[in-house]
Structures are given as C-alpha cells and as structure tokens.
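Hi all, a correction to my earlier message: I attached the wrong file for DUF2780 domain-containing protein. Here's the right sequence:
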Amino acid sequence: MMTHNLFRRPKLTLACLLLSTASAVAQLGTLPKAVPATATPAPAVPSAADSVAHKLDQAVIASTNGDKTAAVTGLNEGVAAAEAQAAISKGDFKEKLMSQTGALKQLIPGVASGAVSGNMLAKAVSLVKMALGANQISSLLGGGGSLLSSAGALTGGLNLLKGGLPSLGGQAASTGGSLISTALSGVSKLGGLGGAAAEPAVKQQLGGVLNFAKGIL
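and the right structure:
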C-alpha cells in the first residue's frame, strides 16, 4: 500500500504543474497588445527666417497701435535682416525674397507719415514672410540630400507660408492651405520608422507648395 502511494504522488504533482502552466498561458493571452507608434507632427525649428518674421510682425502690431516710431524701427530692422537672408541664399526664391523685401521697404516712408497702415502694410509683410518660408524650403530641397534630418526646418518654412495665407484671401488662400496642410502631414512622417519610404512623396508635396508660392510671389 505504501508503494502504491509513492507512485501516485508524482502523477498528482505533474498534473498540478501542467494546470498551473495552462493557467499562466491563458493569462498571458489577456495582456494588452502593444499599440504601434504613430507619426507626430515635427516641431518647427526656430531659424533666422523666423527671427525676421517676428520683427516684421512686431512692426505691424506697433503700426496698428499707432506707434509709428516703433513700426518704422521694426520694419527697418526686419527689412535689413530679410535682405541679409536673401544675400546668402542660393535657392530659386532668392530673387522673390529680394523683390518682396524691396516692395516692403518702399512702404516705410508711408508708414512714418501715417499714409500706409492696416491691410496694405499687413499684406506686404505677409508676402515677405511667405517668401522667407519658401526660400527656406527651396534651400533645403536644393541641396539634393536626404530630408530625414530636416523635418523641423521644413515645418518652420511651411508655417511661415501658412501664416501669410489670410492676407491673400479667396481661392488662393484655400488652395494654398490645402497644399501646405498635406505637406505638413507628409513632413511629420520623416522622423518615423517609415521616413525613408515617405521621402519621395514628401518632396513632391513640397514641390507643389513651392509652385504655388511662385505664382503668388
């Protein structure tokens, strides 16, 4: 009888082990599955063009508030900085930037006298900002290299273009907004695992944005 019990106990132990293993496997099956990472918008990287745009925006605010002295000072600083940007540029928008900056510069005496303000000044500044953004994107594309490390700078350039759309109004603003939104979505994928695969499409999207900017500027 004793011998019989000795042979039965290992069987019971083995059965318990098998039951415990099956229970553990069942519990593992209920664990939440990992959610695949999704691309997030690339944060804009502050650039010299953003600094110029900020100076010009502050000048417009000063003009709106009736502070002609501050407006003129801001415009002169912004124009000088934009001209410096154009001077070192090699992209297709070098001349566009020079042209829009020159047009804004001609308005400064009118701002000083009070003859120029409001929408006229705001639109001229918006066109310079758009030229700055397009020039930044064009310079990055013109290098011929990979854009995978340039998502932040591209986002900054697109945002400058986007910021100038309200002054255009109408169908131009609608068309430009659609093109820029599509490009921003594409650029956000450059930093992800599928960045290299997305790059050709992103270049085409950016090319469409630049063609639009050429028509406006």
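Sorry for the mix-up. The chain has one domain: 48-216.
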